[in-house]
Amino acid sequence: MKKLLLIASIAVAGITVNAQETRFGVKAGYSLSTIKVDEAQDDLEARSTDPSHTFYIGGLVEHKFGDKFGVQGEVLYSPLGGKEDYNVSEGQLYFREKSKLTFGTLLIPVSAKYFITENMSVSLGASFGVILSAKQKTVIDAGLGLPGLDIEGDDDVDIKNDVNTLNIAPFLGAEYMLENGLFFDARYNYGISDLSKSDGKVTNSFLQVGVGFKFGGN
C-alpha cells in the first residue's frame, strides 16, 4: 500500500511539473500610435490629430500554470507618438502648424493569459512605458495671403524636458501560436498617463500587430 501511495505521489508531482512550462521568445511588428489632446482646450476646433505608423521589437518570457492560465512579461522598444495639425484662417489670413511627436519608448508589458485552446489565448495586462527620448518636428505655414508675405519653415527640437517619463497603458490582446513556436498576436494599449508637463493633458494609445517565435523548454 505504501509503495502504491509513493508511486501515485511521484506521478502527481510529475504531472504538476509537466503542466508548468517556461518559454522565452522574440517578437516584432507594426504599431499604430495616436496622441489625444485634452478636450478642455479653447482652440480644440482648430486642432486635429493623426496616427503615426511605426514599429516595435523585443523579447518575452511566458510561464504557464497548467493548461489554461499563464503570465507573460516583455521588454520592447518602440518609437511611439502621433501627429497634430493646428489650422486657423480668416479671410486672407491663415496659420497652419503641423507637428509630429516621437517618443522613443522602452515598453515593459506584463499580462495574465487565458488559453482558450492549446494554441489560442487572450491576455489582459498593462504596458509600462519609459520614455527615453522625445522630439517634435514642426512645420509652419502662415501668411497674409499677399505675395512676399507668406512664411514657411520647419523645426526639429528635443522636448524631453517637457514630457513626463512614465506612460502606463492597460491592454487587451489575443495570440495564436503554431506547433513550431511561431505566433501571431495583436493588442490595443489604452494610454492613461498624462505625458505633458504643461497645461493640457496629452495621452498616447497604440495598437500593436506582430509576429514572433517562442523557444520551447520547461
What does this structure look like?
This protein is mainly β. The protein has one domain (21-215): Porin, CATH 2.40.160. 8% of the residues lie in helices and 68% in strands. Strands 1-3-4-5-6-8-9-10 form an 8-stranded antiparallel beta barrel. A hairpin with a 4-residue loop joins strand 8 and strand 9. It is elongated and about 70 Å long. The protein starts with a helix and ends with a strand. Residues 1-18 and 146-151 have low confidence and may be disordered.
Task: Briefly characterize the structure.
The chain is mainly beta and 218 residues long.
Strand-helix topology:
Layout: H1 2-19, E1 20-37, E2 47-50, E3 52-65, E4 69-90, E5 93-115, E6 120-143, E7 150-158, E8 166-177, E9 182-189, E10 202-215
Antiparallel strand pairs: 1-3, 1-10, 2-4, 3-4, 4-5, 5-6, 6-7, 6-8, 8-9, 9-10
* Secondary structure: helix percent: under 10%
What is the CATH topology? Porin
Query: Which descriptor suits the 3D outline?
Result: elongated
The total count of strands amounts to 10
Corresponding CATH architecture? Beta Barrel
Beta content: over 45%
Please tell me the overall pLDDT.
84
Instruction: State the major sheet.
Output: 8 strands, antiparallel, barrel
The total count of helices amounts to 1
Observed structural traits:
1 helix, mainly beta, elongated, eight-stranded antiparallel barrel, 218 residues, disordered N terminus, Porin
